[in-house]
Protein backbone atom coordinates (compact mmCIF):
# COMPACT_ATOMS: atom_id res chain seq x y z
CA UNK A 1 0.00 0.00 0.00
CA UNK A 2 0.98 3.63 -0.50
CA UNK A 3 2.83 5.19 2.42
CA UNK A 4 0.56 8.22 2.57
CA UNK A 5 -3.18 7.65 2.94
CA UNK A 6 -5.97 10.21 2.67
CA UNK A 7 -9.00 9.44 4.83
CA UNK A 8 -12.20 11.30 3.98
CA UNK A 9 -15.11 11.90 6.33
CA UNK A 10 -17.63 9.04 5.94
CA UNK A 11 -21.31 9.98 5.50
CA UNK A 12 -22.38 6.75 7.19
CA UNK A 13 -20.78 3.62 8.64
CA UNK A 14 -22.96 0.54 8.51
CA UNK A 15 -21.99 -3.10 8.26
CA UNK A 16 -20.16 -6.05 9.68
CA UNK A 17 -16.42 -6.72 9.76
CA UNK A 18 -14.06 -9.41 10.97
CA UNK A 19 -10.83 -8.04 12.46
CA UNK A 20 -7.57 -10.10 12.28
CA UNK A 21 -6.99 -13.01 14.62
CA UNK A 22 -5.69 -11.91 18.03
CA UNK A 23 -2.03 -10.92 17.70
CA UNK A 24 -1.11 -12.13 21.19
CA UNK A 25 -2.72 -15.53 20.63
CA UNK A 26 -1.14 -15.80 17.17
CA UNK A 27 2.46 -15.26 18.35
CA UNK A 28 2.01 -17.75 21.15
CA UNK A 29 0.30 -20.37 18.96
CA UNK A 30 3.31 -20.29 16.62
CA UNK A 31 5.85 -20.46 19.46
CA UNK A 32 4.09 -23.19 21.45
CA UNK A 33 3.52 -25.25 18.29
CA UNK A 34 7.20 -24.91 17.32
CA UNK A 35 8.24 -26.08 20.81
CA UNK A 36 5.91 -29.11 20.70
CA UNK A 37 6.91 -32.35 19.12
CA UNK A 38 4.55 -33.15 16.25
CA UNK A 39 2.00 -31.29 14.21
CA UNK A 40 -0.20 -28.45 15.45
CA UNK A 41 -2.78 -26.50 13.47
CA UNK A 42 -3.70 -22.83 13.76
CA UNK A 43 -6.99 -21.43 12.51
CA UNK A 44 -7.37 -17.65 12.40
CA UNK A 45 -3.67 -16.69 12.59
CA UNK A 46 -3.14 -12.91 12.38
CA UNK A 47 -2.02 -11.93 8.85
CA UNK A 48 0.05 -9.01 10.24
CA UNK A 49 3.79 -8.55 9.68
CA UNK A 50 4.51 -8.87 13.43
CA UNK A 51 3.17 -12.40 13.51
CA UNK A 52 4.91 -13.18 10.20
CA UNK A 53 8.22 -12.24 11.91
CA UNK A 54 7.53 -14.79 14.65
CA UNK A 55 6.63 -17.41 12.04
CA UNK A 56 9.86 -16.93 10.05
CA UNK A 57 11.94 -17.11 13.24
CA UNK A 58 10.29 -20.34 14.38
CA UNK A 59 11.24 -21.82 10.99
CA UNK A 60 14.82 -20.53 11.35
CA UNK A 61 14.98 -22.41 14.67
CA UNK A 62 13.82 -25.66 13.06
CA UNK A 63 10.01 -25.73 12.92
CA UNK A 64 8.25 -26.47 9.61
CA UNK A 65 5.24 -24.48 8.35
CA UNK A 66 2.70 -25.47 5.67
CA UNK A 67 -0.44 -23.57 4.82
CA UNK A 68 -3.61 -25.32 3.73
CA UNK A 69 -5.92 -22.50 2.68
CA UNK A 70 -6.37 -20.44 5.85
CA UNK A 71 -5.15 -23.23 8.13
CA UNK A 72 -1.53 -22.97 9.25
CA UNK A 73 0.20 -26.25 10.05
CA UNK A 74 3.31 -26.16 12.24
CA UNK A 75 5.52 -29.15 12.95
CA UNK A 76 7.95 -28.85 15.84
CA UNK A 77 11.19 -30.86 15.53
CA UNK A 78 11.24 -34.02 17.63
CA UNK A 79 14.63 -33.10 19.17
CA UNK A 80 13.52 -29.53 19.99
CA UNK A 81 14.43 -26.16 18.47
CA UNK A 82 18.09 -25.40 17.76
CA UNK A 83 20.15 -22.20 17.55
CA UNK A 84 21.01 -20.69 14.18
CA UNK A 85 23.88 -18.37 13.28
CA UNK A 86 21.44 -16.27 11.17
CA UNK A 87 20.03 -13.09 12.64
CA UNK A 88 16.49 -13.38 14.07
CA UNK A 89 14.65 -10.33 12.70
CA UNK A 90 11.74 -9.30 14.95
CA UNK A 91 10.82 -6.33 12.71
CA UNK A 92 8.48 -3.91 14.53
CA UNK A 93 7.26 -6.52 17.02
CA UNK A 94 7.97 -6.12 20.74
CA UNK A 95 5.98 -9.27 21.50
CA UNK A 96 8.18 -11.29 19.13
CA UNK A 97 11.40 -9.96 20.65
CA UNK A 98 10.42 -10.28 24.31
CA UNK A 99 8.75 -13.69 24.14
CA UNK A 100 11.46 -15.01 21.82
CA UNK A 101 14.15 -13.83 24.26
CA UNK A 102 12.55 -16.08 26.88
CA UNK A 103 12.17 -18.97 24.46
CA UNK A 104 15.78 -18.89 23.14
CA UNK A 105 17.20 -18.43 26.64
CA UNK A 106 16.48 -22.13 27.01
CA UNK A 107 17.89 -23.12 23.59
CA UNK A 108 21.64 -23.81 23.91
CA UNK A 109 23.82 -21.48 21.85
CA UNK A 110 24.16 -17.83 20.84
CA UNK A 111 21.15 -15.99 19.40
CA UNK A 112 21.17 -12.61 17.63
CA UNK A 113 17.88 -10.66 17.76
CA UNK A 114 17.36 -7.46 15.77
CA UNK A 115 14.44 -5.11 15.14
CA UNK A 116 13.50 -2.02 13.15
CA UNK A 117 14.22 1.55 14.28
CA UNK A 118 11.15 1.63 16.56
CA UNK A 119 11.87 -1.71 18.24
CA UNK A 120 15.58 -0.87 18.64
CA UNK A 121 14.51 2.05 20.85
CA UNK A 122 12.39 0.00 23.25
CA UNK A 123 13.63 -1.16 26.65
CA UNK A 124 14.69 -4.80 26.92
CA UNK A 125 16.18 -4.54 30.43
CA UNK A 126 12.76 -5.60 31.69
CA UNK A 127 13.36 -9.07 30.23
CA UNK A 128 17.17 -9.12 30.47
CA UNK A 129 17.02 -8.92 34.28
CA UNK A 130 14.74 -11.92 35.00
CA UNK A 131 16.23 -14.04 32.21
CA UNK A 132 19.69 -13.28 33.63
CA UNK A 133 18.52 -14.46 37.06
CA UNK A 134 17.42 -17.71 35.41
CA UNK A 135 20.95 -18.25 34.04
CA UNK A 136 20.75 -16.85 30.50
CA UNK A 137 22.73 -13.83 29.38
CA UNK A 138 20.92 -11.06 27.47
CA UNK A 139 23.08 -8.17 26.28
CA UNK A 140 22.07 -5.12 24.27
CA UNK A 141 22.81 -1.43 23.90
CA UNK A 142 22.82 1.20 26.67
CA UNK A 143 21.29 1.06 30.13
CA UNK A 144 17.91 0.05 28.68
CA UNK A 145 19.54 -2.99 26.99
CA UNK A 146 17.98 -2.12 23.63
CA UNK A 147 18.23 -4.28 20.51
CA UNK A 148 20.24 -5.62 18.78
CA UNK A 149 20.35 -8.31 21.46
CA UNK A 150 22.77 -11.17 21.92
CA UNK A 151 21.43 -13.99 24.03
CA UNK A 152 23.41 -16.92 25.37
CA UNK A 153 20.91 -19.69 25.89
CA UNK A 154 21.39 -22.68 28.19
CA UNK A 155 19.54 -25.94 28.57
CA UNK A 156 19.91 -25.76 32.34
CA UNK A 157 18.09 -22.61 33.43
CA UNK A 158 16.82 -22.32 36.98
CA UNK A 159 13.33 -21.36 38.07
CA UNK A 160 12.87 -17.97 39.76
CA UNK A 161 10.37 -16.27 42.04
CA UNK A 162 10.00 -12.87 40.39
CA UNK A 163 7.90 -9.76 40.90
CA UNK A 164 7.38 -8.02 37.54
CA UNK A 165 7.94 -4.32 38.31
CA UNK A 166 5.78 -3.02 35.42
CA UNK A 167 2.37 -4.22 34.21
CA UNK A 168 3.61 -6.28 31.26
CA UNK A 169 2.26 -9.48 29.76
CA UNK A 170 5.35 -9.64 27.57
CA UNK A 171 7.73 -9.73 30.53
CA UNK A 172 5.58 -12.30 32.35
CA UNK A 173 5.47 -14.41 29.20
CA UNK A 174 9.22 -14.18 28.52
CA UNK A 175 9.82 -15.71 31.98
CA UNK A 176 7.16 -18.39 31.42
CA UNK A 177 8.61 -19.40 28.04
CA UNK A 178 12.08 -19.70 29.58
CA UNK A 179 10.54 -21.55 32.53
CA UNK A 180 9.36 -24.37 30.27
CA UNK A 181 12.94 -25.64 30.46
CA UNK A 182 13.98 -24.54 33.96
CA UNK A 183 14.88 -26.67 36.94
CA UNK A 184 12.43 -25.92 39.73
CA UNK A 185 9.19 -23.94 39.53
CA UNK A 186 8.93 -20.43 38.12
CA UNK A 187 6.73 -18.08 40.12
CA UNK A 188 5.72 -14.74 38.58
CA UNK A 189 3.93 -12.03 40.58
CA UNK A 190 2.12 -9.15 38.88
CA UNK A 191 0.40 -6.21 40.62
CA UNK A 192 -2.10 -5.71 37.80
CA UNK A 193 -3.70 -8.69 36.03
CA UNK A 194 -2.31 -8.47 32.48
CA UNK A 195 -3.60 -10.63 29.63
CA UNK A 196 -3.44 -14.33 30.53
CA UNK A 197 -2.95 -15.57 26.96
CA UNK A 198 0.25 -17.49 27.77
CA UNK A 199 -1.23 -19.11 30.86
CA UNK A 200 -4.38 -20.22 29.04
CA UNK A 201 -2.53 -21.52 26.00
CA UNK A 202 0.11 -23.36 28.08
CA UNK A 203 -2.73 -25.07 29.97
CA UNK A 204 -4.32 -26.16 26.66
CA UNK A 205 -0.93 -27.52 25.55
CA UNK A 206 -0.71 -29.72 28.65
CA UNK A 207 1.75 -27.61 30.71
CA UNK A 208 1.36 -27.55 34.52
CA UNK A 209 0.64 -23.90 35.24
CA UNK A 210 -1.51 -22.43 38.02
CA UNK A 211 -2.73 -18.91 38.52
CA UNK A 212 -4.13 -17.28 41.62
CA UNK A 213 -5.68 -13.80 41.87
CA UNK A 214 -4.21 -11.78 44.74
CA UNK A 215 -5.81 -8.38 45.30
CA UNK A 216 -5.64 -6.54 41.98
CA UNK A 217 -2.82 -8.78 40.83
CA UNK A 218 -1.99 -12.40 40.23
CA UNK A 219 0.61 -15.06 41.03
CA UNK A 220 1.44 -17.56 38.28
CA UNK A 221 3.33 -20.78 39.04
CA UNK A 222 4.78 -22.89 36.23
CA UNK A 223 6.49 -26.26 36.20
CA UNK A 224 8.82 -27.16 33.33
CA UNK A 225 7.42 -29.32 30.56
CA UNK A 226 7.16 -29.71 26.81
CA UNK A 227 3.93 -28.51 25.16
CA UNK A 228 1.91 -31.09 23.28
CA UNK A 229 0.86 -30.48 19.67
CA UNK A 230 -2.50 -28.71 19.70
CA UNK A 231 -5.29 -27.55 17.35
CA UNK A 232 -5.56 -23.78 17.93
CA UNK A 233 -8.43 -21.48 17.01
CA UNK A 234 -7.63 -17.78 17.38
CA UNK A 235 -10.62 -15.43 17.78
CA UNK A 236 -10.58 -11.80 16.58
CA UNK A 237 -8.28 -9.30 18.27
CA UNK A 238 -10.20 -7.07 20.73
CA UNK A 239 -7.52 -4.36 20.51
CA UNK A 240 -8.27 -4.09 16.75
CA UNK A 241 -12.01 -4.10 17.41
CA UNK A 242 -11.44 -1.09 19.68
CA UNK A 243 -10.83 1.15 16.64
CA UNK A 244 -14.26 0.31 15.23
CA UNK A 245 -15.92 0.57 18.66
CA UNK A 246 -14.72 4.16 19.00
CA UNK A 247 -15.51 4.93 15.36
CA UNK A 248 -19.08 3.62 15.76
CA UNK A 249 -19.57 5.55 19.00
CA UNK A 250 -18.37 8.94 17.72
CA UNK A 251 -19.80 8.90 14.19
CA UNK A 252 -23.34 10.33 13.97
CA UNK A 253 -24.68 7.63 11.62
CA UNK A 254 -23.04 4.33 12.58
CA UNK A 255 -24.00 0.75 13.28
CA UNK A 256 -20.92 -1.48 13.18
CA UNK A 257 -20.81 -5.16 14.08
CA UNK A 258 -17.43 -6.75 14.76
CA UNK A 259 -17.76 -10.52 14.64
CA UNK A 260 -15.93 -13.19 16.65
CA UNK A 261 -13.94 -11.36 19.33
CA UNK A 262 -11.90 -12.64 22.29
CA UNK A 263 -13.76 -11.33 25.36
CA UNK A 264 -11.01 -11.93 27.96
CA UNK A 265 -11.47 -9.45 30.84
CA UNK A 266 -7.87 -8.18 30.65
CA UNK A 267 -8.46 -7.31 26.97
CA UNK A 268 -11.85 -5.63 27.09
CA UNK A 269 -11.32 -2.99 29.76
CA UNK A 270 -11.70 -0.39 26.99
CA UNK A 271 -15.31 -1.53 26.53
CA UNK A 272 -16.22 -0.65 30.14
CA UNK A 273 -14.38 2.65 29.72
CA UNK A 274 -16.37 3.52 26.57
CA UNK A 275 -19.64 2.39 28.19
CA UNK A 276 -18.89 4.66 31.15
CA UNK A 277 -18.43 7.51 28.68
CA UNK A 278 -21.93 6.71 27.39
CA UNK A 279 -21.11 4.59 24.33
CA UNK A 280 -23.86 2.38 22.98
CA UNK A 281 -21.61 -0.66 22.81
CA UNK A 282 -22.81 -4.22 23.41
CA UNK A 283 -21.54 -7.79 23.27
CA UNK A 284 -23.75 -10.29 21.45
CA UNK A 285 -23.33 -14.05 21.63
CA UNK A 286 -24.03 -16.14 18.51
CA UNK A 287 -23.46 -19.87 18.97
CA UNK A 288 -19.98 -20.08 20.46
CA UNK A 289 -18.71 -16.77 19.09
CA UNK A 290 -19.00 -13.29 20.60
CA UNK A 291 -19.56 -10.14 18.52
CA UNK A 292 -19.49 -6.47 19.47
CA UNK A 293 -21.93 -3.89 18.17
CA UNK A 294 -21.10 -0.16 18.24
CA UNK A 295 -23.77 2.45 17.51
CA UNK A 296 -23.70 6.26 17.31
CA UNK A 297 -23.56 7.73 20.83
CA UNK A 298 -23.06 10.95 22.73
CA UNK A 299 -19.97 10.68 24.90
CA UNK A 300 -19.13 12.39 28.18
CA UNK A 301 -15.70 12.91 29.73
CA UNK A 302 -14.54 10.53 32.49
CA UNK A 303 -11.36 9.66 34.40
CA UNK A 304 -9.48 6.67 32.93
CA UNK A 305 -6.77 4.79 34.89
CA UNK A 306 -4.06 2.72 33.19
CA UNK A 307 -4.94 -0.31 35.33
CA UNK A 308 -8.39 -0.43 33.70
CA UNK A 309 -6.76 -1.17 30.35
CA UNK A 310 -3.59 -3.16 31.15
CA UNK A 311 -0.97 -2.75 28.39
CA UNK A 312 -2.68 0.56 27.46
CA UNK A 313 -2.92 -0.49 23.80
CA UNK A 314 -6.31 1.20 23.36
CA UNK A 315 -5.38 4.60 24.85
CA UNK A 316 -4.58 6.40 21.55
CA UNK A 317 -8.02 5.61 20.16
CA UNK A 318 -9.63 6.43 23.53
CA UNK A 319 -7.97 9.85 23.20
CA UNK A 320 -10.00 10.23 19.98
CA UNK A 321 -13.15 9.28 21.91
CA UNK A 322 -12.20 11.86 24.55
CA UNK A 323 -11.80 14.49 21.81
CA UNK A 324 -15.42 13.88 20.74
CA UNK A 325 -16.76 13.84 24.33
CA UNK A 326 -18.26 16.71 26.31
CA UNK A 327 -15.93 17.78 29.13
CA UNK A 328 -12.33 17.02 30.07
CA UNK A 329 -11.18 13.39 30.14
CA UNK A 330 -8.27 12.55 32.46
CA UNK A 331 -5.87 9.77 31.47
CA UNK A 332 -4.08 8.71 34.68
CA UNK A 333 -0.79 6.91 35.22
CA UNK A 334 -0.03 6.52 31.53
CA UNK A 335 3.82 6.44 31.69
CA UNK A 336 4.03 3.01 29.93
CA UNK A 337 2.56 4.63 26.81
CA UNK A 338 5.93 6.31 26.20
CA UNK A 339 7.59 2.91 25.68
CA UNK A 340 5.41 1.43 22.96
CA UNK A 341 6.08 1.31 19.19
CA UNK A 342 6.28 5.12 19.43
CA UNK A 343 5.87 7.56 22.31
CA UNK A 344 2.08 7.16 22.45
CA UNK A 345 1.85 9.53 25.42
CA UNK A 346 3.04 12.39 23.20
CA UNK A 347 1.31 10.87 20.14
CA UNK A 348 -2.14 10.68 21.79
CA UNK A 349 -1.83 14.30 22.94
CA UNK A 350 -0.66 15.48 19.51
CA UNK A 351 -3.56 13.66 17.85
CA UNK A 352 -6.21 15.19 20.14
CA UNK A 353 -4.56 18.60 19.76
CA UNK A 354 -4.54 18.39 15.95
CA UNK A 355 -8.30 17.67 16.10
CA UNK A 356 -8.70 21.04 17.81
CA UNK A 357 -8.74 20.04 21.50
CA UNK A 358 -6.93 21.74 24.34
CA UNK A 359 -4.58 19.11 25.84
CA UNK A 360 -2.07 19.19 28.68
CA UNK A 361 -0.08 16.82 30.88
CA UNK A 362 1.08 16.60 34.50
CA UNK A 363 3.70 13.91 35.13
CA UNK A 364 2.27 10.61 33.84
CA UNK A 365 -1.28 12.00 33.47
CA UNK A 366 -2.69 13.76 30.45
CA UNK A 367 -5.95 15.58 29.82
CA UNK A 368 -8.11 16.13 26.76
CA UNK A 369 -10.79 18.83 26.70
CA UNK A 370 -13.37 17.35 24.34
CA UNK A 371 -15.13 19.22 21.56
CA UNK A 372 -18.52 17.63 22.29
CA UNK A 373 -18.81 16.00 18.85
CA UNK A 374 -16.57 14.52 16.13
CA UNK A 375 -18.36 16.88 13.76
CA UNK A 376 -16.24 19.66 15.30
CA UNK A 377 -12.91 17.91 14.57
CA UNK A 378 -10.45 19.79 12.35
CA UNK A 379 -8.91 18.23 9.27
CA UNK A 380 -5.35 17.17 10.11
CA UNK A 381 -2.15 15.47 9.01
CA UNK A 382 -0.50 12.75 11.12
CA UNK A 383 2.94 11.08 11.09
CA UNK A 384 2.64 7.37 11.89
CA UNK A 385 6.14 7.12 13.36
CA UNK A 386 6.35 3.32 12.73
CA UNK A 387 3.31 2.82 14.96
CA UNK A 388 0.35 0.85 13.59
CA UNK A 389 -2.00 1.94 16.39
CA UNK A 390 -1.30 5.62 15.71
CA UNK A 391 -2.20 5.05 12.03
CA UNK A 392 -5.54 3.46 12.93
CA UNK A 393 -6.36 5.98 15.68
CA UNK A 394 -5.71 8.84 13.23
CA UNK A 395 -7.82 7.18 10.54
CA UNK A 396 -10.72 6.76 13.00
CA UNK A 397 -10.54 10.46 13.86
CA UNK A 398 -10.38 11.49 10.19
CA UNK A 399 -13.20 9.19 9.14
CA UNK A 400 -15.58 10.42 11.87
CA UNK A 401 -14.41 14.03 11.67
CA UNK A 402 -13.18 16.20 8.80
CA UNK A 403 -10.72 13.85 7.09
CA UNK A 404 -6.96 13.45 7.47
CA UNK A 405 -3.72 12.49 5.76
CA UNK A 406 -1.64 9.80 7.44
CA UNK A 407 2.05 9.74 6.48
CA UNK A 408 3.76 6.37 6.94
CA UNK A 409 0.41 4.56 6.92
CA UNK A 410 1.86 1.30 5.54
CA UNK A 411 3.06 0.47 9.05
CA UNK A 412 -0.57 -0.53 9.73
CA UNK A 413 0.44 -3.89 8.22
CA UNK A 414 2.30 -4.76 11.44
CA UNK A 415 -1.01 -5.86 12.87
CA UNK A 416 -3.89 -5.16 10.44
CA UNK A 417 -2.98 -5.22 6.73
CA UNK A 418 -6.62 -4.92 5.53
CA UNK A 419 -7.60 -2.14 7.96
CA UNK A 420 -8.31 0.47 5.24
CA UNK A 421 -10.28 -2.08 3.18
CA UNK A 422 -12.47 -2.85 6.22
CA UNK A 423 -12.91 0.86 6.92
CA UNK A 424 -14.04 1.49 3.34
CA UNK A 425 -16.39 -1.51 3.38
CA UNK A 426 -18.54 0.17 6.05
CA UNK A 427 -19.16 3.33 3.97
C1 LIG B 1 1.30 -8.06 24.43
C2 LIG B 1 1.44 -7.36 25.59
C3 LIG B 1 1.28 -5.92 25.69
C4 LIG B 1 0.76 -5.27 24.42
C5 LIG B 1 1.25 -5.88 23.17
C6 LIG B 1 1.01 -7.38 23.15
C7 LIG B 1 1.43 -9.53 24.46
O1 LIG B 1 2.48 -5.30 26.06
O2 LIG B 1 1.04 -3.88 24.41
O3 LIG B 1 0.61 -5.28 22.04
O4 LIG B 1 1.04 -10.20 23.49
O5 LIG B 1 1.92 -10.05 25.48
P1 LIG B 1 2.96 -5.24 27.59
O6 LIG B 1 3.98 -6.30 27.74
O7 LIG B 1 3.49 -3.86 27.73
O8 LIG B 1 1.79 -5.52 28.46
Description:
It is a single chain. Helices cover 30% and strands 28% of the residues. Helix 1 (23-35) packs parallel to helix 3 (94-105) and helix 1 (23-35) runs parallel beside helix 6 (197-204). The model has no long low-confidence stretch (mean pLDDT 97). Strands 2-17-19-18 form a four-stranded mixed beta sheet. Helix 9 links the parallel strand 20 and strand 21 (328-332). It has 427 residues and is α/β, with parallel strands linked by helices. It is globular, with a radius of gyration of 21 Å. The two termini are 20 Å apart. It has helices spanning 23-35, 49-60, 94-105, 125-134, 169-179, 197-204, 238-250, 269-277, 315-324, 344-354, 388-400, 419-425; strands at 4-7, 13-17, 38-43, 64-68, 71-76, 88-89, 109-114, 137-141, 146-153, 157-158, 161-163, 182-183, 186-190, 209-214, 217-222, 231-233, 254-258, 280-286, 289-295, 303-305, 328-332, 358-362, 365-369, 380-383, 404-407. It folds into two domains: 4-20 and 237-425, Enolpyruvate transferase domain (UDP-n-acetylglucosamine1-carboxyvinyl-transferase, Chain, Alpha-beta prism); 23-152 and 161-222, Alpha-beta prism (UDP-n-acetylglucosamine1-carboxyvinyl-transferase, Chain), CATH 3.65.10.10. Bound molecules: shikimate-3-phosphate. Shikimate-3-phosphate is lined by residues 24, 95, 168-170, 173, 194-195, 311, 313.
Amino acid sequence: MSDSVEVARAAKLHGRIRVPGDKSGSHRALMISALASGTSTIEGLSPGHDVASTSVIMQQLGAARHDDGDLVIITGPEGGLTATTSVLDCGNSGTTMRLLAGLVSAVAGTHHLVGDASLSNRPMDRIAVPLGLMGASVTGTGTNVSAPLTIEGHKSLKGIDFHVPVASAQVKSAILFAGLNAHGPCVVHEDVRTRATTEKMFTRAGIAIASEDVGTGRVVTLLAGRPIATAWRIPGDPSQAAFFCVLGAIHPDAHIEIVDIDRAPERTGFVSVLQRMGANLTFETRGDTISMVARSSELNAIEIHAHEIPSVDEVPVLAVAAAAATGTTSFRDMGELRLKESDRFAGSMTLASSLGCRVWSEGDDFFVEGLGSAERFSEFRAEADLDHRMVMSSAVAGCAGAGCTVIGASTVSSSYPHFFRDLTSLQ
